[in-house]
Amino acid sequence: QHLATWWSLYQTKYYRLLLEEQTERAAMISTAKSNLLKVILSHRSNRFFSLPSFKKGEFRIPSHNSNKVCTPDDAVSLISANDTICVSGFVGQGSPDLLLKALADRYERECNEGVQEGGLKDLTVLFGGGPGDWDYRGLNYLAKIPSGNNINEQSTAAAKSMIKRAIGGHYGQVPLLGNLATSNQIEAWTLPMGSISRMIRAQATHSPGHITTVGLGTYVDPTPGIGVGGAANELALASPLHQELVTKISIGFGPTADAMKADYLMYKALPIQVAIIRATTADSSGNLSFEHESLLCDQRIIAAAAANSGGVVLAQVKRICETGSLPSRAVGVPGAMVDCVCVVEESEHDVYHPMSYTKRSDPVLYGKIRSPVEDVPKMQLNERKIIARRASFALKPGKVINLGIGLPEGIASVAGEEGQLQYVTLTTEPGVFGGLPASGKEFGPSSNADALVEMNEMFDFYDGGGLDMCFLGAAQISPQGDVNVSRMSAEKLIGPGGFIDISQSTRNLSFLCTFTAKGLDIDCDGAEGKIKILKEGKIKKFVNQVYERTFSGEEAVRRGQRVYYVTDRAVFRRTASHDVIELIEIAPGVDLQKDILDQMEFEPIISPNLKQMDERIFRHEKMEIELFGSLKDRVTYHEGDHVIFIDLTGISLASEDEVRWLGRSLDLILLPITKERGPVDAIVNYDGFDCKSGLEEAYADAVEALSSRHYKSVKRYSFNAFRRAKLKTMASVEALNAKSLFREWDEDNTGSLSPLQLRAGVREYFGIRLKQAELDALCKDGVTLRNFTDILLEVMSKFE
Asked: pTM (2 decimals)?
């Protein structure tokens, strides 16, 4: 019943090959079309083919045929040698294993049958998150070389290998594919995951590539002496593609473009012949929905890139529904982009279509239900919790944050324990806003997430400066503050994942790691508020030179970033004041020489104001971090306009006593002002404010009492709107103290602000995201203390 569908697919393949001038392969498809036509003619009496008629040698496809459901073997038969295939999925989530296994099985059959011409070989695999189970599933299925050759041995028949090259963001969970790369059996590149995501999107629009500053100064930078363009082995360096895949370009803007040129990297868009994606439900027309998928892994743009490249889109789902029964808003990939739909049988869901490799299904992670907040796991007091606790001191209400995998995951647990979690927005790079990020091999989705977007959209948000701060892991740290997380040796390939995109686009960042590794033993009894190093690890983290530069300290200084390195016993920072990282805090109980300096391969700058880390970090009980300050600090009076600003962010009232406390406190704060000048106009921030059920009447009475005694009018806002309203009333630069602001933003003490420093300062203080054209206009004559007042007035005019 699917013969007519195959006729249409062969037609598409035939014309694509003609366009690509691959006449030999086009002739093979033409022969297949002829054979298929004979089969169709023999089935004309079948009810599925009752409509076809012949006129002047033409065959008319039945107009009612729209069924795209087929077997996995039929779907992968459309893949040809030298095709570029793009696969959706992220780490352990959402891998289209049924189709990947079918593709691997086809290759093995052809090897056993001795297929030469037209056989499956020399594929290019393009992926971002690299779906895999750290063993044999996911993209590991595709790590095939001719039968009789072990994947860890050099193959004498490399020309017939299934994979010719791999371009990916993270290989950690696909070790079999990584082994082919490290043994130099395939060409391999590791690129920033966000850039790969936008490379795919660029191909969908037929753009030349993705242009960005992400990757400058790292191993991805193709500039000799800085990086290698992301090449992971000798075959990649020698490949003709290497000179085109990542290129460095200079672009100028405005009337003085030559003088305003800046460096960028362009990641080349690659034609995609095959998209292999996964969804939950499909109808027979190929419309796809994702209701049981924990993440949106760029399925839509992968499908669009393949469709617009003249390729085919193969979709794996776990159930099929009647055409037209999916609500249009539920369709994530339109059927017009999809060529084949393969349904996984219910009995095989655990093997080929679990939500992830560790969970068959979890409605909390795919957003159907919410779990109790009390379920946040509490960490035991050890080096991991110590690091997470110290890092959590940077958390501020209303901030948008990214937590990396590994040690940074502990910050979510500490924030939950300290009652901070509800006041910040945690995000993960595959597209999750809010909630509690899953950890370990489940990394990617979040419990109780607020929103889910596509991965390419999340990286748009990140690269544009949407993150306020990030916390990332670190494997090696150099004197200049360079960080390596992507590769530790020639024998093991990992890749950067989203690390480069996130670390180069975030104003405030902290790298987390233990001071040493492999055998580290720390005594933290939790009673005295200090630690003792019982045994050092065999591997030092602070080294003279990192194996691979995934983050550049020099580039961070140029961008005006605030960079901290947090460990179990010390905190460092990187600034423009020194070429070497600076030690600014040490833990109580450790010896500076023996436990810190002797465990480093280089000598850091030691701050003249060296501090001791807070003792609360090393005790069993909660730290009781004061996230919001005192109520008096929350009330700001602007005398010129006789306006009072009351910030109630995060205040939770659980009893009538607390309601009375709030009313009395505000009354005492407001009384001196209103007694002298009369009732005020009040602007109140209620973002994150909570009044327990049953206290509404008591709270309403308290507000009414305050209004009758002190308020002329009241306006209520959420966090950002409140801040903008507050700043709008400050009509004079004197109220802002321009000189103080300039010194605060000029972190490298150069006497001038870079465009990046100005942009970050304006966003942090005013809540305004300057457009590039606005930033260029403000910085056209440079930014110094002399013209800073005028620039501030220009910025403040945006509140009008």
From this structure: 0.79
